[in-house]
Amino acid sequence: MKNKKILLIGRSSSGKTTLLEHLLYGSSSCKKTQSVERVKNFIDTPGEYIEIPTFYNALIITSYDADVIMLIGEAVEHHSIFPPNFGSAFRKPIIGVITKVDQGGSVDRAREHLQKAGAKDIFIIDYRKPKTLVELENYLSKDLLL
Q1: How far is CA 94 from the centre of its chain?
Q2: Which residue among 21, 71, 89, 130 is least enclosed by CB atoms within 10 Å?
Q3: Residues whose CB falls within 8 Å of the CB of residue 97, separated by 6 or more in sequence, listed in order
């Protein structure tokens, strides 16, 4: 069960790559993901894959290599990028992560969007509060045996 792979899905600029780099390296270089990138246990996808419904099939195919799906939502989002029950297309555990809480918005709204999409466990990440990242790291290493 070690080395489970996690597929990150979220709109462009939602913080997927930033989160991945913080989890792996403790900081981020803030770059745009242009194609599917595999970095250790993570599969980082371009935001366009969720923003353009004709690319959903690419996410589904890419998910075959993953053990867990991580949906990334932003506290500043007013409308969910994820259709209701989006996670049911994967038949894998779905977790949610809320980013950009330092920019205002609504954590409750973001949580609701992720829950409607199918995320079970939801983590709120605020890089100003390292404990929030540690909680996700602990979950990933303990519950997912990474």
Answers
A1: 9
A2: 130
A3: 19, 70, 71, 72, 73, 122, 123, 124, 125, 136
Q: Phi/psi at 108 (nearest 5 deg)?
A: -60, -40
Q: Which of 141, 101, 140 is nearest to 121 (CA)?
A: 140
Render pLDDT for 31-86 as a digit per residue (tens, 0 to 9).
666 678 898 999 999 999 999 999 999 999 999 999 999 999 999 999 999 999 99
| Best CA proximity match to 122, nearest among 58, 70, 77 | 70
Residue 142 has pLDDT above 80, yes or no: no
Tell me which residue of 99, 63, 68 sits closest to 81, measured CA to CA: 99
N-to-C CA span, the chain? 8
pLDDT of residue 1: 31
The residues, any chain, with a CB within 8 Å of residue 125's CB and separated by 6 or more, are 15, 19, 97, 98, 99, 101, 132, 133, 136
- What is the distance of C-alpha 9 from the center of its chain? 5
**Distance in angstroms (rounded) separating the CA atoms of residues 116 and 39:** 28
Residue 98 backbone zone (phi > 0: left; psi -120 to 50: alpha; other: beta): beta
